[in-house]
Amino acid sequence: MASGSKFNSTTRLAYLFLLPAFLVMGLVVFYPFVYNVVVSFSNMNLTHFRDWEITGFGNYLQVFADNSFWYFFFKTVLWTVLNLVFHVGIGVFLALILNKNIKGKSIYRTLLILPWAVPQYITALTWRGMFNAEYGAVNLFLNDLFGIEIAWLSSEWGAFTACLITNIWLGFPFMMVIALGGLQSIPDSLYEAADIDGASPWQKFRQITLPMLKPVMVPAIVLGVIWTFNNFNVVWLVSNGGEPSETTHILVSWVYRAAFFYYRMGYAAAFSMIIFLILFIFSWRFILKTGATENVYG
Amino acid sequence: MANPRELSLKGKIGAYSVLTLFTIFAIYPVLRVFSISLRPGDRLLTKSLAIIPDGANFNAYISLFTEEPFLIWLRNSLLISIVVTIVGVSLATTAGYAFSRFKFPGKSSAMIAIMTTQMFPVSILLLPLFILLINLRLYDSFLGLIIAYSATALPFTIWQMKGYYDTIPYSLEEAAMIDGASRTYTFYKVILPLALPALAITALFSFMTAYSEYLVAVVLIQNTDYFTLPLGLKSFQSSMEASWGLYSAGAIIVSLPVVILFIFLSRWLISGLTLGSVKG
Question: Would you say residue B238 has pLDDT above 80?
Fold first, then answer.
């Protein structure tokens, strides 16, 4: 047999191994995605559910003309940036401490990843209870310690902050764990050499720790941005579907409202496409800029 | 300066206080839920911050099983999650293997396509699936929900499996194939057993994705007989004053097994996540 046919049989085997996964993904991911693209150019809504037709770019124009799109876009960006700053900040900070000689390190580590382990919807519903103005633990503590009470869930930015605190709680362990993995792979000898050169702790952090952490943290941050930007559960469940009066939304919860409460299918499909394109462009720019592609493919 | 991992006394005090502070932040909500689940029914609304409430009892747990349809939700959730896990594990183990071991046309575009699906907002698939399942008359059924869930965890688990296979030396397969074993046989008998830790993570991840999913379920399921645990627990929330104890007891029961499993398996999960990015 020539080597050419051997290559072919290997390729065939490779496709055979991939086939089941791609059949299922084709059916429940790629086909619906294409369907969504088609719907996004159509007039499908509650009155035109079966007799819909292609109408062109109208839905996209309508999204961009809508003030609420720009408002929730701003809120989503703010939400993503604040979350990532706290997730990465707290995560790296705790990882730096856990990487030192600490007694009971594994106990601290286990307790600190607890928020990651709890199902997300339970986290969200539980924190909603804790933000209850009268009986929630947060205000009871604030009252005991500082004598203040905050209208968490009934004011626009109170509800936003409540969602933010909830999501910081559930998100920092992921970054901590990733950072810890990265720190453990930095050889001690680098720091010893820096000591001999008389480097300050800040210089060591800037010149050794940060550059060595970067290849691990960049893919994690990209993932974190994508998850946070699209984090429906926390925003929806903590604010009980956008309370007060439809102000506590990010783009993904707002489009959900349009799709499944007002049944504006064409509009919602176009809206979903726009959210996807925002993330797509951001992610590739970020990945290309930081040169993380080779790490992503490992 | 000696060991770079050693802290000064001042540093130690700072380190332990920070760790303790964040540990309290991490575990307090869990303790709070547990505390509320023990409250007697007539004292659900108190301004107490005590962890063990006055007159603590397990009545909420008992009525969860005897008066509420909790067991039905549990059965529904387990049924759906187990089917989704079996499907997910079979698909991810094979696809991950192909990505790790074979060179074939379209490989990198396939991996990029898989990665790109992670950027989909949930509505981009949920809306078409909703319409399609209505047209297929699979709306409001277990099968519809299972179909919708079957690919949710796949991108992540395929990646995860590929990363783990990459760490298994290729010489093992070569040795088996020199002995005359076929590629498929080698995969099942040599590689798969070695990839057991990654398999466990993939299974856990697929299971947890289905077991903890709220948003798709709330769109695709209406009939209360088909409610999964997230829908059931959320339904307590509409009468939060009366059902706060029931919700809390349910939350503890639902979370406890997955939290324990997760923490137990987290070591492997972490190595799986960092394998692809840390070299050497």
Answer: no
- Check CB contact under 8 Å for B4 and A195: yes
A20–B95 C-beta distance less than 8 A: yes
- CA angle at A196 for the pair A194 and A199, rounded to the nearest 5°: 45
Contact check, Cβ <8 Å, B5/A256: no
Closest residue in A to B117 (Cα) is: A29
Q: What is the pLDDT of residues A200-257, one digit of tens each?
A: 888 988 999 999 898 888 888 988 999 999 999 999 999 988 888 888 999 999 999 8
Among the partner-chain residues B4, B104, B259, the one whose CB lies closest to the CB of A188 is: B4
ipTM: 0.86
User: In chain A, where does DSSP find H-type helix?
Assistant: 3-25, 31-40, 58-65, 67-98, 105-112, 114-117, 120-130, 137-146, 156-184, 188-196, 201-204, 210-229, 232-238, 251-260, 265-290, 293-297
Task: Give chain B positions within 8 Å (CB) of A272.
Answer: 120-121, 123-124, 127
- Residues of chain A positioned with their CB less than 8 A from the CB of B183: 13
Indicate the helix (H) or strand (E) that contains B268. Answer: helix B240-275
- Report whether A165 contacts A128 (CB < 8 A): no
**pLDDT reading at A182 higher than 50:** yes
Could you tell me the CA-to-CA distances from B97 to B92, B179, B184, B238, B265 in Å, in that order?
8, 21, 11, 46, 22
Question: Closest approach of chain B CAs to the CA of A91, in angstroms?
Answer: 11
How much is the pTM?
0.87
Closest chain B residue to the Cα of A251, Cα to Cα: B121
Render A130-196 in DSSP notation, one character per residue: HT-TTT-HHHHHHHHHHS----TTTSHHHHHHHHHHHHHHHHHHHHHHHHHHHHHTS-HHHHHHHHH
Contact (CB, 8 A) for B251 and B234: no
Q: In Å, how far from its chain's centre is CA B198? A: 14
Contact A119 B254 (CB under 8 A): yes
CATH number for region A41-297? 1.10.3720.10
- Residue length, chain A? 298
CB–CB of B195/B203 below 8 Å?
Answer: no
Partners of residue A129 in chain B, C-beta under 8 Å: 36, 240, 244, 247
- Say how far apart CA B47 and CA A132 lie, in whole Å: 11
Residue A42: phi and psi, rounded to 5, are -115, 175
Give the one of B27, B211, B219 whose C-beta lies nearest to A114's C-beta: B27
Across the interface, whether the CB atoms of A24 and B117 are under 8 A apart is answered no
**Domains along chain B?**
10-57 (no CATH), 67-275 (1.10.3720.10)
A115: chain B residues, CB-CB within 8 Å: 26, 29
Report the gap between the CA of B56 and the closest CA in chain A (Å): 18
Annotated domain spans of chain A: 41-297
Residue B273 has pLDDT above 70, yes or no: no
Sign (positive/negative) of CA torsion A162, A114, B119, A93? positive
Are B6 and A11 inside 8 Å of each other by CB?
no
CB contact under 8 A, B263 and A113: yes
